[in-house]
Amino acid sequence: xxxxxxxxxxxxxxxxxxxxxxxxxxxxxxxxxxxxxxxxxxxxxxxxxxxxxxxxxxxxxxxxxxxxxxxxxxxxxxxxxxxxxxxxxxxxxxxxxxxxxxxxxxxxxxxxxxxxxxxxxxxxxxxxxxxxxxxxxxxxxxxxxxxxxxxxxxxxxxxxxxxxxxxxxxxxxxxxxxxxxxxxxxxxxxxxxxxxxxxxxxxxxxxxxxxxxxxxxxxxxxxxxxxxxxxxxxxxxxxxxxxxxxxxxxxxxxxxxxxxxxxxxxxxxxxxxxxxxxxxxxxxxxxxxxxxxxxxxxxxxxxxxxxxxxxxxxxxxxxxxxxxxxxxxxxxxxxxxxxxxxxxxxxxxxxxxxxxxxxxxxxxxxxxxxxxxxxxxxxxxxxxxxxxxxxxxxxxxxxxxxxxxxxxxxxxxxxxxxxxxxxxxxxxxxxxxxxxxxxxxxxxxxxxxxxxxxxxxxxxxxxxxxxxxxxxxxxxxxxxxxxxxxxxxxxxxxxxxxxxxxxxxxxxxxxxx
Length: 513
Prior knowledge:
Pfam families: Aldedh (PF00171)
Shape: globular
Keywords: Oxidoreductase
Protein name: Aldehyde dehydrogenase family protein
InterPro entries: Ald_DH/histidinol_DH (IPR016161), Ald_DH_C (IPR016163), Ald_DH_CS_CYS (IPR016160), Ald_DH_CS_GLU (IPR029510), Ald_DH_N (IPR016162), Aldehyde_DH_dom (IPR015590)
Low-confidence stretches: none
Strand order of the largest sheet: 14-15-16-13-12-17-18
Family: Belongs to the aldehyde dehydrogenase family.
Number of helices: 13
Radius of gyration: 25 Å
Number of strands: 21
Distance between the termini: 79 Å
Strand content: 15-25%
Helix content: 25-40%
């Protein structure tokens, strides 16, 4: 068990840490799979207890002055800053993410608080602060915002701290209470995140139950979503799971669903591009975090005029990436993939594409490790064309690992068509110097994050973040995350006594005597 855990495997229910003895779920270090980071047996009944606790805490938390809530979040920010190295090491141990990559994630925790609480002209708080306008000489129109209530946050393994934190901080800021279920592949990181939040909340006198933690797999997540007493589900994960959340919420149309799901991101490289810039950014975006980001470049669309030398460069770069122990010195570009099953899935996809006629330019393969780690090398595969079908070498499937497919095109029209040959719509990028082509790409490519002369992977928290199609339901995260954490209420405030009599109505003062 990781020595970085402040307490043994536990759920957090209304301020109490409840131990979870057993071994039904175990997270193992992907670099050294014999090393158990977290192990316990979840209790499904805790899901209902956590929701009830969050419901009890809601009135007191929501009624606190905003600055009291903000003070607790700023205290959490300070804890994250002081303990960033500790969180980075835990992320590395549990996910296999290279230490530099894990530290970048850990640093985002504190930054999220500052971005969320920014009240400047471009800050999210201004959009949910309400306003008042005159409607007549004696009547004013007013709008204000209320928290939804109890929010369930379902976290992923690839950014086990940053992505759930991105939902939790704005939810708490606007007066919601939270039940957090981390990924069963990264429970130690999730438990630590919840512990730091609880510490900060307790220090500021928040009621117990504002943040609750429940461990478990799909059955626990399903039980949380099925609970009639929740008001929102803030989810990061795959489309199949997001679909089940939608189906489970059909009887609660007022429930807010923020679904951040997968991607099949394209990058387009045209002949006038700075090919050095394009090659570095494409390789980085395709293989960073061992290809385990939803914004990773999965599909490369390259113009025939530069295709051969550009692809040759990508293959050379991919074959020379440093892959190894995330804690090694010098640090590797990427560590192991999350599990043996995830590695096998990458190889199975590669074999499936090859069987369908794809050309393997660089084969992804298992890398030997004395510790038995789940290491693999990047792969590059040529296909004839991308389609929205789930079949064939150009299939519209998200391979969650370091496997890049590419097509060669002869025109901008064909490049845009191939970029849009997907049901997903999270990220896309183009490399060109032509202003007209750039404007056309920005207008026509269907994605929530569209970049120019930079890769698809990596996003600024100062901007909105989210996808369309199978990538999400238009709930903007990032800088717009506050927008789905409260709902507007409209009211008309009358200060006069001049209510007009409608046609056909009679009133006499004597009736009130």
